[in-house]
Amino acid sequence: MQNPQTLQCGLCGGEQLEHYHQDKFRDYWQCQRCKLVSVAKWHRLSPQAEKAIYDSHDNDLNDQGYRRFLSRVFEPVTTRLDGTKRGLDFGCGPGPLLAKMFSEVGHKMAIYDLYYANDTSVLDCEYDFITCTEVIEHLAQPGEILTRLMAMLKPGSPLAMMTKLVIDKARFASWHYKNDQTHISFFSRETFEYIAEQFNTDIEFIGNDVIILTKR
Fold this sequence. Notes:
alpha/beta, six-stranded mixed sheet, five-stranded mixed sheet, Rossmann fold, 216 residues, 11 strands
């Protein structure tokens, strides 16, 4: 285990990180300000190794099981939209099915992904809603990304995220979600409540893994 003084929280910038867990692959640290649990930077994959894992995923646009999975975000967002809206699916991956689902019901969609749809011009636009499914756990600097996403949202608009939540240390130790080597940032309800306060948003937890922040 290397020197914790070299660590800084990627969400809030805090420097008071305490060791949270260690397994045979990685060390995990928790920020004492925002409670984000993150993987030590010396244990993170290179961009090339990370993309190789993403390339192995099968995100088929015709997969009904994948559609049902994404409906956990699609349905609560759709109920919050009145008329035709402009949305962004941030971190859409190689198979942008969620954007397709919104397009099918009439919304105008843009997509962005660092590896698969890296058109940064879409990040200079304004949106009525943004989705971010199974993305923020991959981010080394989630604070920077959330700041940018919030700046793109119109007032009264939702940012809908999907990610599994940290419960406590005991369950973290046997948690399958941390075993994905591309997962490096782990959020709890307390972390999202911190985010909501910092960005002046309303927050709603839907089920076990969907979080909606509505910009005031």
